[in-house]
Design a protein that fits this description.
Domain Acyl-CoA oxidase/dehydrogenase middle: 112-207
Protein name: Acyl-CoA dehydrogenase family protein
Mean pLDDT: 95
CATH topology of the largest domain: Butyryl-CoA Dehydrogenase, subunit A, domain 3
Domain Acyl-CoA dehydrogenase/oxidase N-terminal: 1-108
Oligomer: single chain
Pfam family, one: Acyl-CoA_dh_1
CATH class of the largest domain: Mainly Alpha
Strand order of the largest sheet: 1-4-5-8
Structural class: alpha+beta
CATH superfamily of the largest domain: Butyryl-CoA Dehydrogenase, subunit A, domain 3
Enzyme class: oxidoreductase
Number of strands: 10
Length: 376
Amino acid sequence: MILGTVRRFIKDELAPHEAEVEESQKVRPELARELRAKAKELGLFAMGMPEEVGGGGLSAVDMCLCEEEFGFTKDALVRRAFGAIPGSLVNCVREQREKYLYPAVQGEINVALGMTEPNAGSDAAGIKTTAKRDGDYYIINGSKHFISDADVADAFIITTVTDPSKGSKGISAFLIDKGTPGFTVGRIQYMMGLRATNHSELIFEDVRLPKSQMLGPEGSGLYQALSTINKVRLGMVGGRSVGMARKLMQMCIDYANQREQFGQKIGDFQMVQAMLADMATEIFAARMMVLNAAWETDQGMDPREKVSMVKYYASEMLGRVADKAVQIFGGMGYCREMPLEQLYRDARVYRIFDGASDIHRVVIARSLLKNGRQSL
């Protein structure tokens, strides 16, 4: 029932705005409010957040299936309608819950996660932004970039170095409000794809934050930021890649059954059939990988190596499917007037964010060398 409702919502409420959002590279604030209100009315907002904090309480498997459906529309519209709430907000305590967690789950505020820096992408522990203790306060200096939703966020979770001598255990996380003195949301860094899911710089110049704004104990910042990353990788990367690939394949099937060349439908040509067969097989393989790792997560297991496999394989699969789709459509696939060109650009980043494919291959290989087949 949930999947059917999500599917209809995307078709009726989100799809009509895709062209506008792609062209303008933004979701109008009034449209965002309208979509969020409609999603909340149907119980579709914050579906992946725990029930005890006001979310939908969907399991990892459930969310991966929903994320497949999200792959049929634009990421920016998904974020504005269904929410893009950092899972680590569940680690808020006392007043933090009242100020950040509950309002975010209710859709009253937007919260973004600020980790990435110019010299710290896949290496999340390599950040340079510092937070120096000053009595009951911390003084923050540094910068972030490529921060998703920074242009619409009301507050941020940021990672900082509080003790350089402790490496990754010397990183702490803070909650910071937009408008805090010394804190500036910089320019939008426009990307090749995922238009309207804008990314911006964050700049900190002697920002003074009370200790009460720290998320979790000092030194637990990397854990706070990454504690829910496996579910994100499974859903927003694994599930979403499968959904986008399914959309691309269906477009190709429809086109192959209609387009005629040399007196016959192109679907009659064996080379086109081979590409369709490859697409279907790879999509099926990725989908089973996603659901298996999600099921293990729901059973309380920690399939981190499998999650790396899912992130690596699903994102690379999407890239191959998108490339074959452009080939099947030919010149029409390369034309900006057709949606395929947009999907091809959107697909490329999935092999980069949340850990580049090369990083996850290293994680998988190290696990195998250490644990052998046990990691599978």
